[in-house]
Automatic annotation (TrEMBL):
Source taxon at top rank: Bacteria
Classification via InterPro entries: CoA-transferase_III_domain, CoA-Trfase_fam_III, CoA-Trfase_III_dom3_sf, CoA-Trfase_III_dom_1_sf
Record GO terms (molecular function): CoA-transferase activity
Name of the protein described by the UniProt record: Crotonobetainyl-CoA:carnitine CoA-transferase CaiB-like acyl-CoA transferase
Keyword Nucleotide-binding recorded: no
Signal peptide residues on this chain, from the entry's feature table: none
Keywords for this protein: Transferase
Region (Disordered): 1-34
Family annotation (Pfam families): CoA_transf_3 (PF02515)
Amino acid sequence: MCTQILSDHGAEVTKIEPPSGDETRTLGPPFDEEGDAAYFTAVNRGKRGMAMNLAHPEGRETLLHLLKDADVLVENFIPGTMQRWGLDFEDELKPRFPGLIYCSISGFGADGPLGGLPGYDAVLQAMCGIMSVNGDPSSGPTRMGIPIVDHLTGYSALTGILLALHHRDRTGCGQRVEATLFDTALSLLVPHAANWMYSDQVPGLLGSAHPNIAPYDKFQCQDGLVFLGILNDRQFAKFCSVMQLDELIDDPRFASNSARLQHRDELRSRIELVLSAWPRESVCSTLMRSGVPVGPVHTVLEAFSQPHAVHRGMQVKLEGYQGIGVPVRLSQTPGRPIGPPPRFGQHAREVLDEAGFDEGHINRLQETGVCP
């Protein structure tokens, strides 16, 4: 995810896989026409691809040769792997390439009680309390349906890389950037961690409700679910006026957000009774245009079929590839997907040739399995 975003915005990214290939290629079905899992295509577009056996001395020498012209190296091995290969940043890479930004992404970092252990998104959701606030009493703690820890760790790494590049522009010096799933998972606990720190009360399961705001939850309409996100008293008054619940405005139980939180069950019952008679589309259209935040609970298909999603270009279609659009817009240097994800080893000869390897050397690297 981190390097795909960089590619979307103009970076030349070379993805180096092990000789066995990136295991994400196998995480299907569904698969694309070339046999790669859709999951792999979601985070690898626009990159050039090659494979390299870094356990082989010649593989390491090949990587060092490629790093001569590199701005950034991103790796997500278990901590200690690069050191075992003689590719430690402080001892080996930094002296050779003082301007290199070295970004390490791992589960827990290299040291501490859990240092060096492998990490996976769902395991970190469990360990770091995310599951404990996701779900309701009937479901129990529940994994979020997206790899939110993986995703945000990619963005954290990206942020660190950009900060380090800015520092290098001013000083000429590279540095090591570290992002871990553990730190990222804990950072997601807003506002739950702050609530606990200031109240000593452990947050629990609220379903789709918010621990600090009411009404802020999903509600059943005549023909489907909507999510109502009322943040302040002004929005609550507008909601009550549109929904003909004016008697709630002057009710002291609902006069402020704090009061509404204390009486959220009674408030929910009153709102559900009214919304159950309204079609979902009418509720959303009427309330949103009155300044009350509300939205239909869509499926993935419905989400990407929205006219506004089409207007924003949030589904990309290239030859042989479909993907999610670029979520950030720059007025002077807008990003764009430049091509499909690489096939296994697709650009090895091209990358090695550009790096100055002669044809005989390239043939030997490929025939010996160093760069298959």
